[in-house]
Amino acid sequence: EGKRAGKGVYRFFHAEMDGRLRARAELEAGLRTAIESGQIIPFFQPLYSLAKDRIIGFEALARWQHPTRGLIPPDEFIPIAEDIGLIGKLSQRILRDGCIAARDWHPDTTLSVNISPVQLRDAWLAPRILGILAETGFAPQRLIVEVTENAVIDDVSAAAEVFASLQRAGIRVALDDFGKGYSSLSHLRQLRFDHIKIDSSFVRTMDSAESQKIVSAVAGLGRALGMPVTAEGVESEDTARKLRELGCDQAQGYLFGVPGSRSEAAHMLAGNDAERLAAGLRQAV
Ligand code: C2E
Ligand code: MG
Ligand code: MG
Ligand code: MG
């Protein structure tokens, strides 16, 4: 009896693994064409200034508009792109499309893009980014490059050189998902970042005293190091209010806007401006 159940479980597990491997193999086979044919597109999520109470930028987040499967989230294809050497091509595509979309925005609005730690080993990364900015006419001062901290940055001196070339050109570099990785503090010591983004796992649990203390300490760390701190994953007014009290500069999250298409982003920004204008008029009257 027990033996049979065990076998069933094994078979089920096997079938599930099989399915997952097949799904991965299919995505892997389609990814190169998807990048080349423009199926990988950026969505845009607002970056909100808690001090100024308005949208100050957008983060480009990759989506795969799959012909049969619909919109596929990045967690399903970014790791594949990293594994099979396509992450550089994918990032260039997101950056180029992001810069083109950002032409619709107010010229103060920033664009943030994500890069994978593996890309930091590429000596051509900075020149390629600068090339795309020149080609699209996007000012380097408006670009923020976010380095996701899901892996240790293994070659710190190569990364430092990439950062330095980007920063010399006026591009800012943000440490993404701060606190989630295993070497956050050593990264902060060894590399020069311009911004810190606190991982959403701390922000989402801010009703606990521990998380609040951690967020408060990171905000203090940012102030001490002269790096504005962004809280990720802000979903409630309560959290936003606490973040303001703790001296957190910026926030992102569903409260301020979910990632949307290029035209949705332009709409969010227009709403933002209309509100600001209305507030200004009310003040003037
Ligand atoms: P990330 O850069 O830390 O981006 C934040 C993620 O949190 C996004 O997920 C965003 O949609 C989600 N998010 C934002 N606000 C909220 C909220 O209030 N609640 C919840 N539950 N989630 C929220 P997304 O778009 O699925 O992206 C996941 C990760 O994939 C990104 O994390 C980033 O590490 C990676 N990624 C996305 N696009 C790219 C890309 O073009 N290149 C690279 N290398 N990585 C990318
Ligand atoms: Mg990011
Ligand atoms: Mg992340
Ligand atoms: Mg993040």
From TrEMBL:
Asked whether the UniProt record includes Repeat among its keywords, one would answer: no
The keyword Transmembrane is assigned to this record: yes
EAL domain segment(s): 24-273
Q: Which UniProt keywords apply?
A: Membrane, Transmembrane, Transmembrane helix
| Signal peptide region | none
This protein's superkingdom?
Answer: Bacteria
Annotated protein name in UniProt: Bifunctional diguanylate cyclase/phosphodiesterase
Source organism of the structure: Sphingomonas canadensis
